[in-house]
Amino acid sequence: MMHMTFYWGKSVTILFDSWKTDSWLSYSLSLIACFIFSIFYQYMEDRRIRIRLLSNKPPPATSQINVPLLNWKPDSRNRRCAAAILFVINSAIGYLLMLAIMSFNGGVFVAIVLGLGVGYFVFRGRDGEIVLVDDPCACA
To answer: Which DSSP category does 16 fall into?
Structure first.
């Protein structure tokens, strides 16, 4: 039976039918996995933002004539591709975390929210000067 309201208990199905918990040990390990996965989400978001900032950084001023064809840099394209790949991976992780929360288990909810908070503090808490609002995901 799928719950439609928050509940507390050790019996929960997270994301897949094969990921069911039936004991306190399996439930605790699942909560730890959700916690670590949400920290990893914040780490990947930090990497994606840093690569995006590097790819948008203007080239250093030189005394050369500014001709559009001469300003093309192949590593800029590689950075944009890396940022796009990280965006796809991060979006997938974010949606998986959202689906895990939709199990409506209180422990899963708390583990993911705490993991997001800890991950933000560790990886992105020092980014007070960086303002980047381009994330369409509501889970970020």
So the answer is: S
What pTM, to 2 d.p., does this model score? 0.76
Helix axes 24-56, 106-119, angle to 10 degrees: 30
b/e sequence 48-79, b meaning 16+ C-beta within 10 Å? bbbbbeebeeeeeeeeeeeeeeeeeeeeeeeb
pLDDT 10s digits, 2-44: 778 888 999 999 999 999 999 999 999 999 999 999 999 999 9
Beta bridge partners of 13: 20
Q: What are phi and psi of 122, to 5 degrees?
A: -75, -45
Across-strand partners of 20? Answer: 13
Percent of the chain residues topping a pLDDT of 70: 74
